[in-house]
From TrEMBL, chain A:
Highest taxon listed in the record's lineage: Bacteria
A GO molecular-function annotation: proton-transporting ATPase activity, rotational mechanism
Chain segments annotated as transmembrane: 12-30
Oligomer and partners: F-type ATPases have 2 components, F(1) - the catalytic core - and F(0) - the membrane proton channel. F(1) has five subunits: alpha(3), beta(3), gamma(1), delta(1), epsilon(1). F(0) has four main subunits: a(1), b(2) and c(10-14). The alpha and beta chains form an alternating ring which encloses part of the gamma chain. F(1) is attached to F(0) by a central stalk formed by the gamma and epsilon chains, while a peripheral stalk is formed by the delta and b chains.
Main location, first listed in the record: membrane
Protein name, entry field: ATP synthase subunit b
Keyword flag Transferase: no
Membrane topology: Single-pass membrane protein
Protein encoded by which gene: atpF
Described purpose of this protein according to its UniProt entry: F(1)F(0) ATP synthase produces ATP from ADP in the presence of a proton or sodium gradient. F-type ATPases consist of two structural domains, F(1) containing the extramembraneous catalytic core and F(0) containing the membrane proton channel, linked together by a central stalk and a peripheral stalk. During catalysis, ATP synthesis in the catalytic domain of F(1) is coupled via a rotary mechanism of the central stalk subunits to proton translocation. Component of the F(0) channel, it forms part of the peripheral stalk, linking F(1) to F(0). The b'-subunit is a diverged and duplicated form of b found in plants and photosynthetic bacteria.
Residue ranges of coiled coil: 37-130
UniProt KW Ion transport keyword: yes
Family of this protein: Belongs to the ATPase B chain family.
Keywords, ordered alphabetically: ATP synthesis, Cell membrane, CF(0), Coiled coil, Hydrogen ion transport, Hydrolase, Ion transport, Membrane, Transmembrane, Transmembrane helix, Transport
Automatic annotation (TrEMBL), chain B:
Region Disordered, residue ranges: 25-50
Main subcellular location: membrane
Protein name: ATP synthase subunit a
Signal sequence, renumbered to the chain: 1-24
Stretches with biased composition (Basic and acidic residues): 27-50
Keywords, alphabetical: ATP synthesis, Cell membrane, CF(0), Hydrogen ion transport, Ion transport, Membrane, Signal, Transmembrane, Transmembrane helix, Transport
Localisation per UniProt entry: Cell membrane; Membrane
HAMAP family per UniProt: ATP_synth_a_bact (MF_01393)
Species per Swiss-Prot/TrEMBL record: Draconibacterium orientale
A cellular component annotation (GO) from this entry: plasma membrane
Length: 164, 384
């Protein structure tokens, strides 16, 4: 049989065999195989998609969590700051008040001291006056025990008056 | 370094099929000369003497192994031939020559390896019908061939590989149904990557995302049919080893299927591009130059498919046989010792070519499928 001349018998059988094989495989084999492949691919694709979505969701949750945490932190800081301010304010107020009170007390004390001082001075003045008077009396009495002296004193007094 | 070996390898891969064809031609010539020689020798009645001198005819040996035949030859010891007989199916237009029956079915063993006639049929030894079943007239002269649809070696080989193909694909289909939505198991693992490859690397890019599905069954059948037959052809034990994809009748039918599907699915745009392509008017009128070129392209495309697969697979078989026959050529020229000494080199080369053929088997199945897909893509392409 020639190598390069197609043999009619071969062509005849080949047409029949290949035709039948093609038809049978197409009808009963390739269709289910290709459908199964497609289904699997689809299911894998869906699975991957849902995984991706879940990942996104988790990421969203994480972001939310972080947001909440950050907010909480901020709030905490704000509260702390407020508390500190309040404390400072209270302390400052207290300090101020205490200062004022002290000032008041001091002023009062000062006033009292002043008053007492004045009273004391007045007392002292009184006593000094009394003492002076008694001393003067005693001196005068002693000095005026003799005549010459009296006169001398009178003279002196008169002189003083003149000078004044 | 790896790149270099790859380059060298590819170089040989491209070179060798050409070399094979050359060998085939030489083989043909040798065969022819041999036939004429033996013819003249027969006339001189010195046939047996000269035959013994000639010893081993490499050309005939090689061509016999790659040719189709009516029985499946396994081996011969001297004059004793061991072969599997195959059914001969012939329809004669002259039933009076064959016991009044037109339709005949009998085993090829009735011919005794072409040595005897049966019911007015015999395997011709004349140059015109060499190797074919011919009808004999009352005087025992060849008068022509009957309608011959015998199950030859090639057809038997196709049937054997079709059994394997059907088993493989149906096993996969069964598993695919069972494992829907789950991981593949068993033989499904072997076929699915190839199916994916055909779908994603061949059909989708060549035909397009939307239309490829329609052609998938054909492309898959084509690819697996060619691939399995290519591989079966490399296994030298019956029922394998028939040179199926290296038979031009087989590749012709495959190409015809591609051609038919392309033509049936050709859309308006496809036909318009053939009969009225977008070229300057003077290329279409008064002489329809471009339409002629385009129309011839429609025919050449499947023709090239046919020849490419045939030539590549045929060449692979031829070279292996040539290297094997080298042993016997040396043996008959310089004595058995030299033949034995040459055998390791021959075997080494044969093994190398066989391994190359494994690669070629894949490449040719892929190329045939890819080109078919491209033609389908052209036939269904939208107008841009």
């Amino acid at each position: 049989m020639g190598l390069v001349m197609p043999n009619p018998g071969t062509i005849f059988w080949m047409l029949i065999i290949f035709g039948i094989v093609f038809f049978v495989l197409k009808k009963f084999a390739w269709k289910p195989i290709l459908t199964a492949l497609k289904e699997r691919e689809d299911s894998i694709a869906t699975a991957l998609n849902s995984a991706e979505e879940a990942k996104k969701e988790v990421a969203g949750l994480k972001a939310d969590n972080e947001k909440v945490i950050a907010e909480a932190r901020r709030e905490k800081e704000a509260i702390l700051k407020e508390a500190k301010e309040l404390k400072d304010k209270i302390v400052a107020e207290a300090k101020e008040k205490a200062g004022e009170e002290a000032q008041k007390t001091i002023a009062q004390a000062r006033q009292q001291i002043e008053a007492e001082k004045t009273a004391a001075i007045n007392d002292i003045k009184k006593q000094v006056a009394e003492l002076s008077v008694s001393i003067a009396e005693k001196v005068i009495r002693k000095e005026l025990s003799n005549k010459g002296e009296q006169e001398k004193m009178v003279d002196g007094l008169i002189d003083d008056i003149k000078l004044n | 370094m790896l790149k270099l070996t790859k380059a060298v390898f590819l170089f040989f891969a491209f070179l060798l099929p050409g070399y094979g064809q050359l060998q085939a031609q030489q083989g043909h010539e040798e065969e022819k000369t041999h036939v004429t020689e033996s013819h003249s020798e027969e006339i001189e009645a010195h046939a047996s003497d000269t035959h013994a001198e000639e010893g081993f005819n490499a050309g005939e040996f090689v061509i016999d192994h790659v040719s189709d035949s009516y029985d499946w030859h396994i081996t011969s010891f001297g004059d004793k031939h061991i072969s599997i007989p195959l059914p001969i199916i012939v329809y004669s237009k002259q039933p009076e020559l064959h016991d009044g029956q037109a339709f005949h079915v009998f085993m090829s063993s009735k011919f005794h390896h072409g040595h005897s006639a049966y019911k007015g049929f015999r395997i011709s030894e004349s140059e015109e019908f060499k190797g074919k079943v011919v009808e004999l007239d009352a005087a025992g002269l060849e008068i022509g061939t009957p309608i011959d649809i015998s199950i030859t070696k090639t057809i038997a080989g196709i049937l054997a590989s079709v059994v394997i193909l059907l088993w493989l694909v149906f096993a996969t289909a069964k598993l695919a149904k069972k494992n829907t939505g789950r991981a593949p198991t068993g033989v499904q693992n072997a076929l699915e990557p190839i199916i994916f490859f055909i779908r994603d690397e061949v059909a989708k890019p060549a035909i397009g995302e939307h239309k490829y599905e329609k052609f998938m069954p054909f492309l898959l059948t084509l690819f697996f049919f060619i691939l399995i037959n290519n591989f079966m052809g490399l296994i030298p034990i019956p029922p394998f080893g028939a040179n199926v994809t290296g038979n031009i009748g087989v590749t012709m039918v495959l190409a015809l299927f591609t051609f038919a599907i392309t033509t049936i699915n050709g859309n308006k745009h496809y036909w318009k591009e053939i009969y009225n392509p977008d070229v300057p008017w003077w290329l279409k009128f008064p002489i329809p130059l471009m339409p002629i070129v385009e129309l011839s392209g429609v025919i050449t495309k499947p023709f090239v498919l046919m020849v490419r697969l045939f030539a590549n697979m045929m060449a692979g078989h031829l070279i292996v046989m040539v290297f094997v026959s080298l042993i016997f050529v040396f043996g008959s020229l310089f004595g058995p010792a030299v033949g034995l000494g040459a055998s390791p080199i021959s075997i080494l080369f044969s093994v190398f070519i066989l391994l190359l053929d494994v690669l070629v088997s894949f490449i040719q199945a892929y190329v045939f499928t890819l080109l078919s897909a491209l033609y389908f893509g052209m036939a269904t392409a939208d107008h841009h």
